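**Reference record**
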Amino acid sequence: MLELILAAYGIGIVGSFHCVGMCGPLALSLPLNNQNTNAKIWGALLYNIGRVVTYSFFGFIFGLIGKTFSFFGFQQWLSISLGTAIIIYMLFGKRMRNYISYPTQVTKFFSHLRSALAKLYKNQNLSSLFAIGLLNGLLPCGLVYIAAAGAVSTGNVMHSIIFMSAFGMGTLPAMWSIAFFGNYIARRGRKLRQRIKNVYPYIMVCMAGLLIIRGLGFGIPYLSPKVNSQTNTIEQCHDKGEDIYCKGK
């Protein structure tokens, strides 16, 4: 689980520069109290905590989905499929988006979501900032979808929640900075964002490879543990001197 948490945090950190470009306008226009430094600090923090809470809730949902697949013995295949899907998305994502249309219900949902956000932006208080963060976490984002793939693959509700929380925490430093420092970061960070953006595909490949290797069950402790086909449990093996023992998990 540790390797997936580190991967989630890494995706969050690197991907946060992508978030600055996509969600930066929302963060820059937050109704922060610019006259009070402490209020501004806490307001920017509460906004981002709201996003992390939403991501953690997603982790709960994704964990239930992953646990269902695990219960029926499909966890390994799910992990391999998700890793493959990430690679396919990287190669053909732009072309695929031209042929994807959202159902009417989904379009209406996002329309209501944007209306709710617009109302909250009119209120300059901490509760509104937290609520804006909660709702912002619901907006469609390819980066969140990548994190969701990793969360589902854990096959464990608590692990999935921790995974999505780690992802959210990874995005927090950059998103807090853009909210607090505003246009200064937006101007100064353009070249850095572009450099990070160039690295981002490699991070996605690593995540996809990690999921595929994990699903193949090579028996590598923590990285690719074996799955007992009879009991459908992950076997974590540890080396104790000359003895190697495994236990179901």
User: Anything to note?
Assistant: The chain has two domains: 2-216, 219-249.
